[in-house]
Write a structure and sequence with these properties.
single chain; mainly alpha; Arc Repressor Mutant, subunit A; 51% helix; 0% strand
């Protein structure tokens, strides 16, 4: 049985984004969610990225913890 590591780096890969630590840090520094803004409503996602995030949340997929982490990171000043 193959075990997949659902971490922030792999989430970025799933979203088709650069996934090294520096790229993730840059993404978080360059993007921000406003108070009350839904992660999947953010203008910086492509349609396919939004769809992945929405479906993962709805299905309570293994990605939920990392999606919630990303949501939190994008809300920090």
């Amino acid at each position: 049985m193959e075990v997949f590591n659902h971490n922030l780096e792999n989430l970025f890969q799933q979203l088709g984004l650069p996934s090294d630590r520096e790229a993730i840090s840059s993404f978080i520094a360059d993007h921000h969610l406003e108070s009350g803004e839904n992660l999947t409503s953010a203008a910086f996602w492509s349609a396919s990225q939004k769809q992945f995030l929405e479906e993962a949340k709805l299905q309570d997929a293994d990605w939920v913890e990392q999606i919630d982490t990303l949501d939190t990171l994008l809300r920090k000043d």
